[in-house]
Amino acid sequence: MVQTKEKAVRNTKPSSRRKSRRKYQEADFMLLAVTAALVLFGLLMVYSASSYENVVKGFAAYKDVIKQGIFALAGLAVMIFIFSNVDYHRYTLQLTKYGVVVILILNVAVILFDPTKGASRWIKFGGISFQPSELAKFIVVLYAANMLKRMETYRRRPWKPVMKVFLVAGLFAGVIVLLQSNLSIGAIVLISAFVLIFLSGASLLHVGFLAALGFAGLLMALLFEPYRMARLMSFMKPFEDAQGDGHQLVQSLYALTGGGFFGRGLGMSRMKAFWLPEAHNDFIFAVVVEELGFLGGFILILLILLLIFSGIRIAMKAQDTFGRLLAMGITTVFALQSLINIAVVIGAFPVTGVTLPFISAGGTSLMVNLAAVGILLNISRQKAPAKTA
C-alpha cells in the first residue's frame, strides 16, 4: 500500500512540472520575440545615437547604453518572472483605485523637484530619476478596463462607468498638461480612455460628447500656451525659422533624407553630432533612418506593427471582457506613442516629447513598457476556451 502511494506521488510530480512548462509554452511567442527584438534594436541605436556626444563631453562612449541596458535587463526580468506570471484578474478595481491615488500624487509631486530642460516631469532621488507620467498611461487603462468590463450591468445608468473613466482620465491628463507641460502624454491618456469606452459598447452619443469635451480641453491647453502655438506654426513651415522653433524638425528632415535606401552605415550619422537635439531620445528614429536607411526604418516600423498586431490578437482571444479591454488598452498606448513619435520625426505632427517605445533612451519608459508586455503575456496564457459544436 505504501509503495503504491509513493509511486503515485512520483507520477504526480513530473505531471505537475509538465503542466508548468506547458503554461509557459502557451504564452504568445510572437509578442515575446518582437519585444526582445525591439529591446535589442533599441540598445544598439541608443549606443549609436549617444556615443559621439558622450565622447565629446569626456564620458565613455557606452555610458548611456550601459544605463539603458541595466533597465532593459531589470525590465525583462520583471516582465518574465513577475507580470507574466501574475493572473491579471488580481488587478481588481479596489487595488486599481489605490494605484490611481498613488500615481496621481506622484504626478503632482514632480513640481517639488528642479525642472529638467524647462519642464517638471521627473522625480529625482539618489541620482536616479523616473517619470511618473509613464505610469499614468497604464493605470488609466487598468482603471478603465475594470470599470467598463461590466457595462451590461449598467443598462439603466450607462453614464455611470463612462463618466468615472472620463473623469479619472481627464484628471490625469489635466495634471500632466498643466503641471508637467506634456500635452502629448495627456492626449495619449485621454485617447486611450476613449478607445476603451468605445470598445466597451458605450453609445456613439456618449463617446462623441466626451470626445468633444476632451478635444476642447486639449485645444485650450494649446491656445493658452504661446510656445505650443509657436511649435504648431513652425511645424507647418519649419524652414522659415530653421535656427529657432523649426530647428529640430529641419535637422530631423536632413537626417531622414541623408540616409538613402541603405543608410550611411551604423554609427555614421552626421546629424547626431550636436545638430539634432534629443538624437538618442525623442528623435532616435531619424538616426535610425540616417544610419540604416529606408530599409532600416521600414524594418523597425514592421516590428512595431507586429507588436501591435500581437496585442490585438491577444485581446481577441482573451477569455473575458476585462482581458480584452486591458489588452486593447495597452496595445493602444503602444500604437499611439509609436504613431506620434514617428509622425513628429517625419514632420507630419508638431514637435512634442513622446518617446518611441522600446527604442528611445529612458529607463522609466522601458521598464513600464516591458511590465505592460508582461501583462499581455499573462492574458495570452488564459485564452477563451474553444467552442464545441
TrEMBL record:
One of its GO terms (biological process) is regulation of cell shape. It is found in: Cell membrane. One of its GO terms (molecular function) is peptidoglycan glycosyltransferase activity. It holds the Pfam family FTSW_RODA_SPOVE. Residues 1-21 are annotated as: Disordered. The chain crosses the membrane at residues 27-49, 69-88, 95-113, 125-145, 165-198, 204-224, 245-263, 283-309, 321-349, 355-377. Its EC number is 2.4.99.28. GO terms for cellular component: cell division site; plasma membrane. Pathway: Cell wall biogenesis; peptidoglycan biosynthesis. The keyword Acetylation does not apply. It comes from the Bacteria. The keyword Transferase applies. It is a multi-pass membrane protein. Peptidoglycan polymerase that is essential for cell division. Belongs to the SEDS family. FtsW subfamily. This is Probable peptidoglycan glycosyltransferase FtsW. It comes from Proteiniclasticum sediminis.
